[in-house]
Amino acid sequence: MNIRLNSFSPRKQLKATINVHYFEFLAIKREKSISIYHYQSSLKEKSHKSNQVRAKGLCLRTFKQM
């Protein structure tokens, strides 16, 4: 899943992409009921700002389930 945010520098953009991949990997590895496909499709419908908030929420939920 590639996230392109025009306001990001290339380094920050890469870091954000790596973070999303890492948390997707954690969710799949833990075999929790997080629908990555639904998450990806809903990302496309939201604004950049709410994308970041939603991604942060996904990360927090993933940590709480560990």
Distance between the termini: 23 Å
How much of the residues is beta strand, in percent? under 5%
Task: Describe the global form.
Answer: globular
SSE order: HHH
Q: Helical residue percent?
A: over 70%
- Radius of gyration using CA atoms only: 12 Å
DSSP strand tally: 0
Q: How many independent structural domains?
A: 1
Question: Mind explaining what this structure looks like?
Answer:
This protein is mainly alpha-helical and 66 residues long. Helices cover 74% and strands 0% of the residues. Helix 1 (10-30) packs parallel to helix 3 (48-65). The two termini are 23 Å apart.
Keywords:
3 helices; globular; mainly alpha; 66 residues
List the helices and strands and how they pair.
Elements: H1 10-30, H2 36-45, H3 48-65
Helix pairs in contact: 1-3
Brief description of this entry?
With 66 residues, the chain is mostly helical. The protein has one domain (10-65).
